[in-house]
Amino acid sequence: MGYDSWPVPEVKALRTAAPVLARVPALLLRPGFALLLARGHDDAGVGKESFGVHYRPYAEHGGGAALARQVVALDVRDTLAVQDRLPSLRVPARVVWGTADRFQQVRYGERFARDLGTALRRIEGGKHFTPEDHPDVIAEELRALAAEVAGR
């Protein structure tokens, strides 16, 4: 996530509803959270497993109140403050992006690649949670990055 690509509409809606969301018990939060997570996965099995991992902290720490605290704390100014410095970093980098990411369109991946001076590896049909759905591709890119750094 970066630039002005966030918060996404779903998070903006949650932020607007934060006072009400904070009163939602974990059990009632569960279906909506599952749906939101499922929309970001192109592998339904991995999405279900991901739900089990990502939902647990909300269930254990206040349900809707925990999610409300998180969405209220998000601040796009954090990424906007550093966006102009990305091209000057001159660090080895890799950018991997799902072409079907409905939360963060691929044009942001293209921009990251351009600003970081690297290629963009597209995952056709990949959605938002590419590290969970396509760990083999992510690992391949990380190995290539490590090899590049080791070769310098």
Given the structure, what is the number of helices?
9
DSSP, total strands: 2
* Shape assignment: globular
Major beta sheet, strand line-up: 1-2
- Our count of domains comes out at 2
Given as residue ranges, the uncertain stretches (5+ residues, pLDDT < 50) are none
What share of the residues lie within helices? 55-70%
Distance between the termini: 28 Å
Write down the overall mean pLDDT.
93
Radius of gyration using CA atoms only: 17 Å
Structural class by helix and strand composition: mainly alpha
Q: Major sheet, described briefly? A: 2 strands, parallel
In N-to-C order, the SSE pattern is HHHHHHEHEHH
Report the sheet-strand fraction. 5-15%
Oligomeric state of shown chains: single chain
Summarize the structure.
By secondary structure, the protein is mostly helical. The chain contains 9 helices and 2 strands; from the N terminus they run ααααααβαβαα. It has helices spanning 9-16, 18-21, 26-39, 44-60, 64-73, 77-80, 106-116, 130-133, 135-150; strands at residues 95-98, 120-123.
